[in-house]
Protein 1
Amino acid sequence: MTDERSNFNRRSFLKNAKVIIGGGAIGAAGIAIRPEMAQAAEAVKSLPKTVAQFRCPVCNKDFSNFAELKNHFKTEHPEHVEPVTTKLNINGEECEVLIEPHWTLQRTLQFKLGLTGAKQMCDRGACGSCTVIMDGRAILSCMTLAVECEGKSIQTIEGIAADPKWRPLIDSYCKWDAMQCGYCTPGFLVSAKALLDKKANPTEDDCKQALAGNICSCGTYPRHPTAIMEAAPIIAKGGN
Ligand code: FES
Ligand code: FES
């Protein structure tokens, strides 16, 4: 007797449920992949070039410029730390944000720039979900103050997802089911990209070492090196 469930797997379930679309996938983390590359590109391009709204973070009153907001702070909220403006280069785009000086890069990406790929999970440098690349190095955005990032070049998963060169990596993650809930996946992909930038054809040990700081509660670990090593030669030839 044929067991109808014998050909049933999570990937085909998701595909039928339209979670996987056109050969690509949308991780539960909300990172758009393949048909949504345009969406990722849009997110990258639509960053605010300058601060448009000078809103007091204490009383929510709006001001027309930064000087007025600072004056307001001095008179109305002398006990609070004044907000600051910071210029950032995210995925090759210059942008400016108004934040409080203690804001992390992760918080700034999420709440000021709408880039939700760098996830806050532990918020203490232990899980890797918030990984981004800064000046070529994978870093934890929850442990990095946004004001420290001025003059640096930041790459997020949105920038990677929007670049066709990296599509094979994302496709390979989908093919090998290297994700379940998907919450950790952006962090893993960013770490994998940082590895492949340095080493075009990594070994399994290279992959394990590069991903050592990324935690996956769903236990997808064995599949990451497989996915990365399969994508590596395609990416080395320029991707597709
Ligand atoms: S949220 Fe940054 S390391 Fe966990
Ligand atoms: S896929 Fe769920 S936490 Fe990694």
Note: Residues 166 and 193 are 8 Å apart (CA to CA).
Protein 2
Amino acid sequence: MISSALKSVVITVCISAGIAGSLSLTGVSFWPSFFIVSILQIIGWQGFLYMVSVNAALKNKEIDEQMMKDYMSNSAIVPCSNCKQENLTPIQLSETNSFKCTKCNVDNVIYIHIESAQVTTPIKSLNIEDTIKINELK
Ligand SMILES: [Zn+2]
């Protein structure tokens, strides 16, 4: 920790000395330019660290949202077999699903029953006047 901080200080001083030395060749005084370059490096580095941390936080938030979306799409609200408390639990078709009730702590196993049904076309008009007219014609 201390060695990395010392390394950062040495690098900052070297860069500042190099730039201030170069500027002193053009007639700019060394120490004011040395301090200004040092301060600009510190401000620039802090700004860089801030941008990196904000970017990482945004990425983490995106990952959390995606994980929550995936979790919710593969989950179901299942009542406990003992106390009927509803529990949100992940469902996977490839393995036995179980959960511990959040209210009574009883272990539950989930049995999945899959059915199929024919897709039907919904009735287009449910207008009551049309229905009465159709019934009057009959
Ligand atoms: Zn329960």
Note: The pocket of zinc ion is lined by residues 80, 82-83, 85, 101, 103-104, 106 (CB under 6 Å).
